[in-house]
Design brief:
191 residues, mainly alpha, Glutaredoxin, Glutathione S-transferase Yfyf (Class Pi), Chain A, domain 2, two-stranded antiparallel sheet, 2 strands, globular
Length: 191
């Protein structure tokens, strides 16, 4: 979803090819030849194929710099990458943990795992709240750092994570949801 958001923000045409992830289509030899990790996305363009969403997104930013989604100053660009790393390594795991538990029948859910994931998010959200205290987006204008969080903020909403104690973060999430590119998140999370 994150790479589709970039494509949409940059108004680049693309074909979306769906894989049957539950049936491990991404683990078939033909796909592993494109991405040895067997994960999505893979961005295929004449002369290049790129995998891992953060790398796909930076590739698109470098190749199609307008409209810009990343700062050009080295320090700000490093901050952008740090927020992307924070999202991927810290924020995503507890959100995905909640998603997996919530997909199980109620009788099979582990309340301990749910509580642990929510507690972890409550440890992480103050960092976002502090960053968003005096600005609308993580690193200056809307960009790659913000859109990296977008699908996972949407998942938080779906699994009942309450952002009301983090008003700046909640307002930021609302701003992200109001962008036209949010359509790509809705497509990725069918009702």
């Amino acid at each position: 979803m994150r790479t589709r958001i970039v494509l949409k923000e940059k108004n680049l045409p693309f074909d979306r090819i769906l894989l049957d992830l539950p049936n491990k289509e991404q683990k078939q030899d033909w796909y592993l030849a494109l991405n040895p990790y067997g994960k999505v996305p893979v961005l295929v363009e004449e002369g290049a194929w790129v995998y891992e969403s953060a790398i796909c997104n930076e590739y698109l930013e470098e190749k199609y710099p307008t409209p810009p989604l990343a700062p050009t100053e080295a320090g700000a660009k490093a901050q952008m990458r740090l927020w992307i790393e924070f999202c991927n390594s810290q924020f995503v795991p507890p959100v995905i943990g909640l998603v997996y538990e919530n997909r199980k029948p109620a009788a099979e859910r582990s309340q301990e795992k749910i509580d642990h994931s929510k507690a972890r998010l409550n440890e992480l959200l103050p960092r976002l709240e502090a960053q968003l205290q005096s600005q609308d987006y993580l690193v200056g204008d809307y960009g790659l750092a913000d859109l990296t969080f977008t699908p996972f903020l949407a998942l938080c909403e779906r699994v009942g994570v309450d952002l009301s104690s983090f008003p700046h973060t909640a307002q930021w999430a609302a701003r992200l949801k109001n962008r036209d590119s949010y359509e790509e998140v809705k497509i990725g999370f069918p009702a």
